[in-house]
Write a structure and sequence with these properties.
5-stranded parallel beta sheet, 3 domains, Rossmann fold, single chain, about 450 residues, Helicase, Ruva Protein, domain 3
Length: about 450
């Protein structure tokens, strides 16, 4: 536990709270910032005691350093007369305690905050922590534990170990560039650069100069030598995003580079050797583009040595919930004063039911908008711009699906009826607390407070 801005540290020493937690005292915001970066605090106290005490403006930057920490405010009763200060408490804190300190009452508040923080961490923890195959393990940094993503990461692992060209397919917004960076970051070329070219965003009149570079005075406006994107990839990776949008004449030039591994800058006769691994990405069917005559067959075969297809978000099951929670935490770190802190049960149902035509990019945008504009502690489907889930019964509904839906509805309603008291709910349902926590985690049921 961290205590900042007052003498609560001394007050709690020797109390029951001291027996159950490690206490750290910070005498200033700067010292608290250093402690938060080093220590993994489940709960923290901030003392707002006039005159010359901690101010809201000083405190709020600390929230971005401690998204997993539950904060408790200790305040003078007079401070609560300010509507602005009350709004600040509701926005930023798990709970508050009026001064002077009552050690026993504060110990109860701290115990509840620590338990809640610990439960939140256990729910959001990676189920296969650190093995690199699922979740946010350090090997790939790609979130997802669905069967579709497990199969994808198995293929990705094999691609990373090679140095052959890679063609990444998938719908717009699925994260193809993220995959390209993961391949580079984990490959034998990680120490080299990655040069990114969006083939659909460069004007046709500039694409040759962008790819190959140019010499000074090569054309009007060329006031100095410029290194092209291909040369910039030397020793590393050249990532050609939206390769299907590359004009046919430039496709011929790119094919020659891939065959000869040399380039010449515009305005130069000098030939330069280049060494890079090429990764290309596209949302269109290149095989069909070849049949239609808009993409060279020989270039397609050069690029399509190793193939990856990033699954659409609609194919990834409950990965959408894991991703939504990840983007929520990231957005809260950028907007620490925002009111929302989680998703309601109705929002979770809406996230599951939505078809996600814009894939992960759409999910990011909806979560960011909900965090910035949301007025409640829990994000609802209306904050996400999603209709309340009323999905029809699927034709291929299995017994396991039906059982999971029934269990989830029963547990959610029982928790609400018992005020989210886990022990009381467990007794009512005739199960142990351990079993109930396991089911809450498995069925992604939020414990709203």
């Amino acid at each position: 536990m961290l205590d900042i801005g007052g003498e609560v540290f001394a007050t709690l020493r020797g109390s029951r709270a001291d027996e159950r937690m490690l206490l750290r005292h910070a005498r200033s915001v700067d010292e608290a910032r250093r402690v938060l970066r080093r220590a993994d605090a489940l709960a923290a106290l901030a003392v707002f005691q006039a005159p010359g005490g901690l101010s809201p403006v000083e405190f709020e930057p600390l929230l971005s350093l401690s998204q997993a920490t539950e904060w408790i405010a200790l305040v003078e009763p007079a401070a609560l007369e300010s509507r602005e200060f009350r709004a600040f408490l509701l926005r930023a804190f798990h709970d508050y305690h009026t001064l002077p300190v009552d050690p026993q009452r504060l110990a109860v508040i701290l115990g509840h905050a620590r338990g809640l923080a610990s439960m939140r961490r256990s729910v959001s923890a990676d189920p296969d922590d650190g093995d690199g195959q699922t979740g946010e393990g350090p090997a790939f940094g790609i979130c997802g534990n669905s069967p579709a993503m497990r199969a994808f990461t198995q293929r990705l692992r094999k691609v990373i170990d090679s140095d052959a060209p890679v063609l990444i397919g998938g719908q717009t917004g699925t994260g193809k560039e993220l995959v390209a960076h993961a391949i580079h970051r984990n490959s034998r070329r990680a120490a080299g650069p990655i040069s990114v070219v969006n083939c659909g965003a460069i004007p046709a009149t500039l694409i040759q100069s962008e790819l190959f570079g140019h010499e000074k005075s090569a054309f009007t406006g060329a006031t100095q030598r410029k290194i092209g994107r291909i040369e910039a990839a030397n020793g590393g990776v050249l990532f050609l995003d939206e390769i299907g949008d590359l004009p046919l004449d430039m496709q011929a030039s790119l094919l020659r580079v891939l065959q000869e591994r040399t380039i010449s800058r515009v305005g130069s006769t000098q030939t330069l050797p280049v060494d890079f691994r090429v990764i290309a990405a596209t949302h269109v069917d290149l095989a069909q583009a070849v049949r239609q005559g808009s993409f060279r067959e020989d270039l397609f075969f050069r690029l399509n040595v190793l193939q990856l297809v990033v699954p659409a978000l609609r194919e990834r099951g409950d990965d959408v919930l894991e991703l939504a929670d990840l983007f929520l935490r990231r957005t809260l770190a950028q907007h620490p004063g925002s009111r929302p802190r989680g998703f309601s049960a109705r929002a979770i149902d809406a996230l599951r039911a939505h078809d996600w035509p814009g894939n992960v990019r759409e999910l990011i945008n909806r979560v960011q908008g909900a965090v910035v504009m949301g007025e409640n502690r829990l994000i609802g489907p209306e904050d996400l711009g999603l209709a309340v889930a009323t999905a029809p019964l699927r034709e291929s509904l299995t017994l396991d699906d039906a059982r999971a839906s029934f269990e989830r509805n029963l547990l959610a309603s029982s928790l609400r009826a018992n005020g989210n008291k886990v022990s009381q709910t467990a007794r009512q349902l005739g199960v142990s607390r351990v079993t109930l926590y396991r089911l809450i985690n498995k069925l992604n049921i939020p414990l709203d407070h």
